[in-house]
Design a protein that fits this description.
With 25 residues, the protein is an all-alpha fold. The protein has one domain. The protein contains 1 helix and no strands. The longest helix has 18 residues.
Length: 25
């Protein structure tokens, strides 16, 4: 699954994770 994601997709995923982590704090 990870290998199927392009670098552009990863940037979006990481951005979403940063937002999610910020909400948890």
């Amino acid at each position: 699954l990870i290998g199927h994601l392009s670098e552009r997709d990863w940037k979006e995923v990481r951005a979403c994770l940063k937002v999610a982590l910020a909400d948890l704090e």
